[in-house]
Amino acid sequence: MKKETITILGCGWLGLPLAQTFVKQGYSVKGSTTREEKLEMLRDAGVEPYLVRLDPEVNSDDIVAFLQSDILIVNIPPARRDDIVEYHIEQFSSLIDALGQSPVRSVLLVSSTSVYPALNSEVTEEDAVEPETLSGQALLLVEEMLMQESGFQTTVLRFGGLVGYDRNPEKYLAGMTEVTRPEQPMNLIHRDDCVTIISEIIRLKQWGEVFNACSPVHPLRREYYSRAAEIAGVPQLSLAQDVEPSNFKVVNSQKLVSALHYHFLFPDPLAQQS
Fold first, then answer.
1. Tell me, what's the pLDDT at 243?
2. pLDDT score for 272
3. Closest to 180 in 3D by CA, of 188, 189, 172
4. What's the rounded mean pLDDT across residues 46-51?
5. Neighbour tally for 268: CB within 10 Å
6. Structure confidence by residue, pLDDT tens digits, 156-166
7. CA dihedral 171, 175, 179, 185 (to 10 degrees)
């Protein structure tokens, strides 16, 4: 049976290895970048490359051809700007208009656990109310926009902090003077798990869902950066003396684990440091 065509909007740190994985699995893959110099890199990876920008209107060399696909994966974070919420909504309004003229029937939105406020407790998919950050507010609004569309089904995937490869804690130690909020648990996920989870959602056709995706072990910040200092062979950072306990959230991913029968490749972010 012929495999579907997958389009990935945003082939960066996560999107490119995701595209490479789909190519290896035999899918026809289209991918976008905002930089002309990256087109050849996508082509070399077996991906049909396109220049696509949402600024905020769709700006593309050929958006119609780009969206000639069965599945669209959207992997573009909110832009860091003063009008972040309004701008992100305008970006997705323009994208949804373009999707209305396309054959895409399944959309996967890469979102973030920033949609959850710090409730000082475990949070599940139903707890996304009143995000505390502007980026979290922007993401929650575009999640709702996509889920309300009737022309295609959307699955929302809320990742924790992305780690692995060049995104390791040792990299950030040089710019730190102390570990702030040392008793706060962390919600992290390795890039390899992100790629595998997205692949499994598509394989199992888990559409119309909202899933959290974080490693099941949640190290405290002091534990995480202490381990990083050990690996880097540098002195331990001092711990900030918090006057009041830090607000926190522990993201529960059991819904995803049950739906996909998923076993994390890197269940403990401390163990993945090497």
1. 62
2. 65
3. 172
4. 98
5. 14
6. 999 999 999 88
7. -40
Burial environment of residue 130 by CB neighbours within 10 A (0 to 12, 13 to 18, 19 or more)? exposed
Residue 222 buriedness (CB in 10 A; 0-12 / 13-18 / 19+): middle
For residue 144 the two structure tokens come to: 């709702």
CATH class, domain 5-163+189-218+250-260, is alpha beta
Contact 97, 60 (CB under 8 A): no
Rg (CA), the chain: 19
Q: Is the peptide bond before 56 cis (omega within 30 degrees of 0)?
A: yes
The SS3 call for residue 72 is strand
The pTM is what?
0.95
Q: Is the pLDDT of residue 269 over 60?
A: yes
239's CB contacts (< 8 A; 6+ apart) are 178, 179, 182, 222
d(CA 257, CA 11): 26
Collapsing DSSP states into helix, strand and coil, what is residue 221? helix
Q: In this predicted model, what pLDDT tens digit does every residue of 199-215 receive, in sequence order?
A: 999 999 999 999 999 99
Structure tokens at 44: 């070399």
